[in-house]
């Protein structure tokens, strides 16, 4: 596999994990803000919408990548991010650093 494809897969893997961590930092903070502070209903709805929107974007990002060789969806092969090897064709997708 070309080095450029591996670099893009590594970036996608790191972005997916980073967004997942950011989501789980943002969500409790937003819930605390909704519960503890007297904010308007509009602001509450915006925070809740942001939580659901972020969850949808992260899910779409997880299932958007395919194996460059066999085009198998990589999102189903890994808990989070990109697996080390494609489960269908066995090609190496991430190398240990």
Please give a structural write-up.
The protein is mainly alpha-helical and 97 residues long. The chain has 2 helices and no strands. The protein has helices spanning 3-36, 41-62. Helix 1 packs antiparallel against helix 2 (41-62). The longest helix is centred in the first third of the chain and has 34 residues, at 3-36. The mean pLDDT is 87.
Largest sheet: none
> Strand pairing plus helix content: what structural class?
mainly alpha
Order of helices and strands: HH
Spans with pLDDT under 50 lasting ≥5 residues? none
Q: In total, how many domains does the architecture comprise?
A: 1
What sort of overall outline do the alpha carbons produce when their principal axes are compared?
A: elongated
* Number of extended strands: 0
- Beta content comes to under 5%
- Helical stretch tally: 2
- Please tell me the overall pLDDT: 87
């Amino acid at each position: 596999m070309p080095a450029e494809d591996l670099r893009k897969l590594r970036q996608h893997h790191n972005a997916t994990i980073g967004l997942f961590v950011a989501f789980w930092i943002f969500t409790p903070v937003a819930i605390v803000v909704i519960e503890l502070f007297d904010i308007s209903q509009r602001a509450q709805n915006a925070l809740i919408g942001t939580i659901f929107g972020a969850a949808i974007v992260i899910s779409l990002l997880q299932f958007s990548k395919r194996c460059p060789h066999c085009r198998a969806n990589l999102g189903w092969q890994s808990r989070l991010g990109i697996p080390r090897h494609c489960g269908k064709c066995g090609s190496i997708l991430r190398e240990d650093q």
